[in-house]
Design brief:
alpha/beta, Glutaredoxin, 5-stranded mixed sheet, elongated
């Protein structure tokens, strides 16, 4: 009688089911190891190119429009910035439904993410139009910006040469010598079979320098709690 590696059996399952499920479990474990290896490669990335300008965005604060620089999106204690590009161009009748679905969720866990990194959502539509959609969706925790007056979308692959809007997630880092690009979700631009399925658009956030140390500390604390002592 086949058993799972941890002796898992569910009521009335057949030996055939368990043997096949064990094969799937082994594949899942191998996939997890590969995901961890890819994440390690991402964390070892050096700094990317310096931003070509301190982009000027439009933002609504207290109902009033104001200009906001890229550099102003960095809090003094957080050197990493995650920018999600929302597919909502000025000529679009409606925003992208997949982006909207994603941002519905991001709005809820932004409270936790922004404890470690800076976060902004950028779209090409006028800022008033973006906020009107945000109000309809009930978004209250996302920092929303309009890139209608700059070339950010084109420069960071959130727009095709014809002006069509593209999904993108870019991570930037700030140091004493300026702001540099760190990472982007590039699967969309790779020649692969089928749809790229960018379901982990915010995955680059896990590679931010500000998150890496925090994640290591969190993992160490969790191990200490489980062991009841210090982790050597």
């Amino acid at each position: 009688m086949p058993e799972s590696p941890r002796g898992v059996r569910f009521p009335n399952e057949s030996d055939e089911y368990r043997a096949t499920r064990n094969d799937l479990l082994q594949a899942e474990l191998e996939l997890r190891e590969r995901i961890e290896a890819v994440a390690a490669l991402r964390r070892r990335l050096p700094r990317g190119g310096r931003v070509k300008e301190d982009y000027l965005f439009a933002e609504l604060v207290g109902g009033a429009r104001r200009p906001t620089r890229l550099s102003e999106l960095f809090a003094s204690d957080k050197p990493s910035l995650v920018v999600y590009s929302f597919m909502y161009g000025p000529d679009a009748e409606h925003p992208c439904p997949m982006c909207t679905c994603f941002l519905d969720g991001l709005d809820r866990y932004a409270l936790h993410l922004t404890q470690r990194v800076n976060l902004a959502v950028v779209a090409k539509s006028p800022i008033e139009r973006i906020h009107a959609w945000a109000a309809e969706r009930g978004w209250t925790r996302l920092r929303l910006l309009s890139s209608s007056g700059n070339t950010y979308n084109a420069d960071y692959l959130a727009e095709d040469p014809e002006g069509g809007q593209m999904p993108a997630c870019n991570v930037f880092t700030r140091a004493d010598d300026g702001i540099c690009h760190f990472s982007a979700a590039e699967v969309l631009y790779a020649p692969i079979k089928g749809h790229p399925r960018l379901t982990r658009k915010i995955a680059s956030a896990s590679s931010c320098p500000a998150l890496r140390a925090s994640s290591r500390r969190s993992s160490r604390s969790a191990r200490e709690d489980r062991r009841g002592g210090d982790d050597p």
